[in-house]
């Protein structure tokens, strides 16, 4: 379970022009989620790509997941993007994985190799 202090007051999300108020919601005036929903999504992604996850090869951390999620939400909230937030579904998880692999590399493709991403 993600603890709020692990994310350093969600600076990762707020620096991406997404408003957060721990008592209310995260929004860009188009889409809304509660902080608990966001932290549940971090847990969900971690259960797949974290140290003891289903695909633990890259041992992703909560801060890495939070950073990639912030980047993904920024893409989703961009009016020019065809990507939309799916309430934390498997497609959202896979897109966050792709962002982590692109930014951090992975065991099969070090940084700098070309990736096939899910759009």
What does this structure look like?
There is one protein chain. The protein is mainly alpha-helical and 119 residues long. It has one domain. Helix content is 42%, strand content 5%. The chain is built from four helices and three strands, in the order αβββααα. The protein has helices at 11-14, 35-49, 62-77, 90-104; strands at 19-20, 26-27, 32-33. It has a three-stranded antiparallel sheet with strand order 1-2-3. Strand 1 and strand 2 form a beta hairpin. Helix 2 packs across helix 3 and helix 3 (62-77) packs across helix 4. It starts with 10 loop residues before the first helix and ends in a 15-residue tail after the last helix. Residues 8-17 and 20-25 have low confidence and may be disordered.
Question: Helix and strand layout, with pairings?
Answer:
Layout: H1 11-14, E1 19-20, E2 26-27, E3 32-33, H2 35-49, H3 62-77, H4 90-104
Antiparallel strand pairs: 1-2, 2-3
Helix pairs in contact: 2-3, 3-4
